[in-house]
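Deliverable D4.2, example record:
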Amino acid sequence: MSRGPKPTVYWCDRQGVTGRIALTEATADERMTWYTEGPEGPEPLWLWLWLNEVGLPFQPHSWNNVFTAANQRCRAVLDPEPERRLDPHRSRAPYATPHSCRHSFALYMLVILHHLMDQRFGLSPEERRDYRLLYGDPWRMVQDLLGHAFLETTRERYLAPVADLRLRSLLTTAPPFSRRGAADAGDG
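Output generated by the structure prediction step:
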């Protein structure tokens, strides 16, 4: 497979016939048939190496079934009849989907990357600009991780939660307000 923003997969079948296909054009069913020569023979080249109970790669839609079953198990334990309820706080059972996990991952990565750039490295504004030019902006990093074609898509989905978290972080780390400081600020 070639590298870069538009990778191409080059293949050779059992009869020696060669070909190529853009990775973005290959269907999930096609990807599931790809193998590579490993040290002990052919190995699946399935891009998401999650295997089911019989050792075959999951189809993309199968993840919904996994999450549905997990949600049902949680509901059975946490939301049974009131006399059998295990949760004394009467909270509702959690509900998750593959997309909610993707959203949580993206939000977590944005918060961590912003935190690293803003606090951990102690960078000045100039150093932060240089760092972003060299390694990339956190928004672009998350855009690449999610596979969004446009940076605006990433910002549109995650800007409000990240802005709120950053504001809370700034407010909790701000020095306490004093009357003396306010009086000095008013003198200028």
